[in-house]
Amino acid sequence: MSLLTVGSVAFDALETPFGKTDKIIGGAATYITLSASYFVRPNNLVAVVGDDFPQSMIDILQGHGVDTEGLQIRQGEKTFFWSGKYHNDMNTRDTVEVQLNVMGDFDPVIPESYQNCEYLMLGNTSPAIQKMVVDRLTKRPKLIVLDTMNLWIDIANDDLKALLPLVDVLVLNDEEARQLTGDYALVRAAATIRKMGPKTVIIKKGEHGALLFQDDRIFFAPALPLEEVFDPTGAGDTFAGGFIGYLAKTDDTSFDNMKRAVIYGSAMASFCVEKFGAERIIDLTPEEIQDRVGQFVKLSAFSVDM
User: Fold this and answer.
1) DSSP secondary structure letters along 257-296
2) From CA 164, how far away is CA 158, in angstroms rounded?
3) Keywords assigned by UniProt (predicted)?
């Protein structure tokens, strides 16, 4: 089943307690498509970069089977750039610098060859851009997954709420769920969000795992305990890519299969944090992924004597 991802392809400059790096490949769509590439092809990308974006990085995406026909390269302009510094706890960070550059007026163009995609991943961009993508598809995909963040809840709340009835799954973190609903209790917050439109809600809790809500059903996936978290940048996007990639591969959107997809997404995210940027998820093997999924299974398996 084909997957279409729309979002940012960018440069990141990162500093963590373990070191720092200058410009490396980043952006929500980069992490999503790389993660999804281990599960699904065609794996189509719609994004925009400037002419400063090196061909070698595009080659990495293409080497993973990512179709870049929808990647706009704007001549004479610069690629979106984000710089951040993480605190010692690795859960909080400061944004040092943001340069919107080509993302400031991104106009997503959907190639004709992408029009029949069965699965759509709306990576973290403004709700206005995300809605533009939905409106420009000639056929509604089987499943639309939306990722958002606190910035859009704050400055584009009306646009976001207008978009929510058009999507099937909303992915956000616990802080954002509380911000969107005004409710600290995540079970109630998820119920409120489902009334806004999405049938399914995934609330990420970082090192404490993820919650999946649908109707009156709840599933909790733990995070894998790691001795060191080297760089959490892109972990949430990597999770989303693994989640929708697995669903597209299996072509099964049942709640039981979504539970499996959450585990696969969590496994992919656990790889992402082991090195800077997207470095770790570029060279994974199928055996590594299955072994990591097995660790998640062992982590939560138990028996009960009644």
Assistant:
1) HHHHHHHHHHHHHHHHTTSSTTHHHHS--HHHHHHHHHHH
2) 10
3) Kinase, Transferase
Sheet containing 93-99: which strands, arranged edge to edge? Answer: 19-26, 10-16, 81-86, 93-99
Listed as ranges, residues in the chain with pLDDT below 50 are: none
- Structural domains in the chain, sorted by start: 3-300 (3.40.1190.20)
- How crowded is residue 68: how many other Cβ atoms within 10 Å of its Cβ? 18
CA 38/CA 285 separation, integer angstroms: 8
Instruction: Please write the tens of the pLDDT for every residue from 178-198.
Output: 999 999 999 999 999 999 999
Cross-strand partners of 14: 21, 84
List C-alpha distances in Å: 151 to 172, 175, 255: 12, 12, 29
Q: Report which of 48, 168, 173 is spatially closest to residue 120, judged by C-alpha positions.
A: 168
> How far does the chain reach from its first CA to its final CA, in angstroms?
43
Cα–Cα distance between 136 and 121 in angstroms, integer?
14
